[in-house]
Amino acid sequence: MNGLLIGRFQPFHLGHLEAILFGLSQVANLWICIGSSNKSNEMKNPFTADERNEMILSSIDEKIAKQIKIYYIPDVNDHNNWTLQIDSIVPKYDVVFSNDEFSQTLFQKRGIKVIPVPLRQRESYSGTNLRAKIANDQDWKDLVPQGTRNVLLKINAKDRLKIFNYK
Fold first, then answer.
1. Which of 12, 7, 6 is nearest to 140 (CA)?
2. pLDDT tens sequence across 59-78
3. Which residues in 145-159 are b (16+ Cβ under 10 Å) and which e?
4. Residue 118 to residue 163: CA distance in whole angstroms
C-alpha cells in the first residue's frame, strides 16, 4: 500500500520526521510531496524545493530512503483541481496523511482515505516558530534532525531569514 504526505517543510524538523515514520508504520511506500515547490526566498517559503529535498534526504536513514520518493508540488491557486494536480505528478496512493483540515476535506470529497498524523509538541515543531528561532539566533538545533541542521548551516539560513524580521 502507498501513502501520501504533503508538507512545505520550511524547514524539515523532528515533527516532520515523526510524520514520515508514522506514515511508514501504516504503508509500505510513502510519497512525500514538497508543497509550494515553486516558491522560495519569501517569508513563508524561504527555502527552495531543492534545499528542502536535501534536508529530508540527509535526515533519514537508508532503510527509510528506500521506502520513500519525493515529489515537487507547485502552488496552483486552484483548490478544486489541487488534488488532481497532485495525482498527475505522483504515482497511485491509497491513503493521505494530513492534519490540515482543508486538505483532508479535499481528499475525502474524492473518496480518498485520510489519516491524521499524531502531533508532538506542535508549538515547538512549527516551521514558523523554527524560522523565527533561527533568524533571531535562539536555540533551534535540537528541533531538527542532524541532516537538516547541516543543510541550514551550509546555506547560512540565519542570514537569509533575518531579512524577514521574524518575531
1. 12
2. 999 999 999 999 999 998 88
3. bebbbebbeebebee
4. 33
